[in-house]
Structures are given as C-alpha cells and as structure tokens.
Amino acid sequence: MAGFRVPGPLAGELRVVPHPAVMLVLEFGAGEAAMEDAAGRLHRGSLVAGPGFGSGGGVRARGEQAECVQVRLSPVVAGTLLGVGPAELTGGAVSLDDLWGREAARTRERLHELPSWQDRFALMDALLARRCAARSPVDPAVAWAWKRIVASGGLVRIDHLATELGWSRKRLWSRFHAAVGLPPKSAAKLVRFDRAVHRMLGGGGAAQVAADSGYFDQSHLHRDVMTFTGSTPSAVVDEPFLTVDDRAWPTGVPR
C-alpha cells in the first residue's frame, strides 16, 4: 500500500495506467478526488477498481487537497478481502460505500484522525486481515496459476498450466476468470505489459525490452502499449502514474 497527498489541484488530469492488481482507494480528509472513465462516468471518493482498470487510456484522475491510502491487491485474494470478486468489476470501478456501507465511512474517519502514514498503514493491515479471516479461503489452484503467470512475467503457456493442474483449458478459463476477473491469456498479457513498461521506465530500450519480454518484435510491443494506454511507449514512460511506482511501491508490486 502507499499514501498520497495532493496539497493543491492536480496540474492537469492524471492518466491511470493499467496494472495487474485490484486497486482499493480510501480517500480521507477535507479534499476531493475523483476518477472519470472512458464513458464519462465520474467516480468520486473511495473506490475499488478491477485489474486492468484504465485500459485504453480513457481513465483520468483528478483532485484537489486530496489524501488517500491506495492498496494494490492480488486479484485472487481481492474477493475475499473486499466482498466483491474482480469478475464483478469487469475492468471498471465501484464505490467503496456501495461495498462496505458504514464501514467505509468509519474507516475514512479513522484514517483522518491518525497522525502518520505508518499508523494508517497499520490500520489498513489490521482491517484487511480481519476481513480475510472472516471470509472463505482463496481457491488454491487459481492462486497457483496466477502466481505462475506473474513469476513468468506473463510468458507461461496457458495450456501448460491447464496440463499441470490436470484441468481442461475450458475449466481453467472458467475458474480463473471467475476468480481473477480476466481470462488467463488476458491476465498474462496484462502482466507482460506491466513488466515491459516498468523495464522501459528503468531505462531499457524498446527493442531490447520487447525481446526480453516475449514480444515478437518492437512493433508488437508498441501495439500492446497503445491498446492498454492509448499512448506510445516513448510517451507512456513519462506518465506520473508510472513514474512514482518505485517510490510508492518499492516491493510487492506484481511486475
């Protein structure tokens, strides 16, 4: 998780770059934050967004004097923790008030009262642990498949996963999609994209990154980046949503 403070108005709108996690945003304090999706729908305040949220480059964040805690959750545990599965989010976002009711408001109030980010992170750790303990466990087979996809950088063959599980491709597709919110192949594509853009952000050239990340060639990488962000590889590495990652998410981010 990470804490963000916007002391004044955002200098322009912030493009949301998709990543392979469920995003939980808890806004607190006197400011205001919102996200506008590609259809022009405005999501104000605290929200939950599915993996790949922002695909196509049509989601923008804006705010003024806003403070929030953002948590990135593995899709395979998100349903257990949040009370809504990623499949129900379908790449979009829902209000946390609609999911948690009064608990969302109480959590925001407590976050506002606490004096430091570390105290706020500890509060969120305890809250999520409590919610996890009170709900059904994660499907171990789907969790295993997700970990294999992430560990491979999205390069593992989906038919190999099905074979190792002793499942048909159809069964893997159905169980995985229900738990993660994406079919296995789409999830692998998102993980591969995320790994590639962060390598470019670290200074890697597009041609070398394409070769190392399992793309056919540089134009294949270019098409993938355009599909996910609506921007070119050279432009996307300057997106503020990405450039804060190494400071905001030094460990634990799926890449």
Automatic annotation (TrEMBL):
<dbReference type="InterPro" id="IPR050204">
    <property type="entry name" value="AraC_XylS_family_regulators"/>
</dbReference>
<feature type="domain" description="HTH araC/xylS-type">
    <location>
        <begin position="139"/>
        <end position="239"/>
    </location>
</feature>
<dbReference type="GO" id="GO:0043565">
    <property type="term" value="F:sequence-specific DNA binding"/>
</dbReference>
<keyword id="KW-0804">Transcription</keyword>
<dbReference type="GO" id="GO:0003700">
    <property type="term" value="F:DNA-binding transcription factor activity"/>
</dbReference>
<keyword id="KW-0238">DNA-binding</keyword>
<keyword id="KW-0805">Transcription regulation</keyword>
<protein>
    <submittedName>
        <fullName>AraC family transcriptional regulator</fullName>
    </submittedName>
</protein>
<dbReference type="Pfam" id="PF12833">
    <property type="entry name" value="HTH_18"/>
</dbReference>
<dbReference type="InterPro" id="IPR018060">
    <property type="entry name" value="HTH_AraC"/>
</dbReference>
